[in-house]
Amino acid sequence: MDSIISDQLTPIELSIDQIYLDPNNPRFVDDAWMKILDERIDHDNVQRNAQEKMIQNHDVDKLRMNMEINGFLPIDQVIVREFKPDKFVVLEGNRRITAAKLIVDLECKGVAIDAKVMDSISTINCLLYTGTDNQAAWIFQGLRHITGIKPWSAYNKAKLMNELLQEEGKSLTQVGKQFGLSAFGAGQWIRGYNAFRQAKDDSEYSGDVKESSYTYFQELFGRSNLPLRQWMEWNDSEYQFEDSMAFNEFLSWLYPKPNEDEIDEDVDPDDVFGDWDNRRILTNRGLRDVSYLIKNATPQFEEFRNGENLTKSVATARLAEAQDEADSRRRPALELLRSMDELTRELRNIPTLRFKNDDEMRDQLLDKLALLQTSIQEISYEFQFETSPV
Questions:
Q1: Where are the domains of the chain?
Q2: Overall pTM surpassing 0.70 (yes/no)
């Protein structure tokens, strides 16, 4: 039997300086890609180009922030092959090595990095590929990224963040950094988790709420959804909504129940569950539409609350908003027409005798009438020119 891949992997300990990014990384391949030969892999410009591609396209900064807190975690070993004596190119693990090298660069520039973090980065336990397959990088990355590692659910991530914040006393900045998030991003996850727990533990829909709806609660704390949070009276000190009636109404949009007259008489109402598959807000981004209605279109928000389709309510509100905007653009012209009507009435009622007996007032009137006549002629000529046939 031919040797299997596991027989071609040998544990090896390498310094970070011995490890080089793969310029032929399968992530980089496109129509303009050209293979880099082994003799050029360690060239500065080749490595710099590979690093820039990783930073720009593969979320390395998030991983770097995590690594600055947790160090280099050998959960999944980096796989390398030797391309020159004592020089090794990464076959699997380019993101982690890029992040590690960025931290080394930061320390060289004078940025204070925890000594234990630097120890974890300076020497890395790898697996040395000793086989001869030229497509080894494709094989290893395929095993990891195509068949894939099942990701954590969003709820589980939020739960862990909350535990780090509450039980370990870490700040939002520290928690966020561990997950490659800003303090705002971490706060959004943690607030969403607490709102979800309120729905799960202390609402009329406790038996209905499932983890699959967590992303709706996280979305509540996006910047666009302040009106919806205010409507339910979010208390940021207690991490909960204080208007329980509004909060339960919100949950009814996610887990609508049949009306009382639709329930059989012999069915206990407590045994009737909300129907997530029939939710009135189809995606978590729909919360932004609700926030828009609350802020800008109270009549349409009330229509939605009374059972109108959210998409239709928003469309009606947008149409009314567009009409109001069109009316506001026409308003100055309408005001001018009304002013002209008033001026016409005033001119028809000029007390001519009074002006005839006062030379100074008569001259002022004649000057203003001449100026007005000139303006009228200019405007009339302009409109006649624009509307005349070519």
A1: 5-146, 154-296, 351-390
A2: no
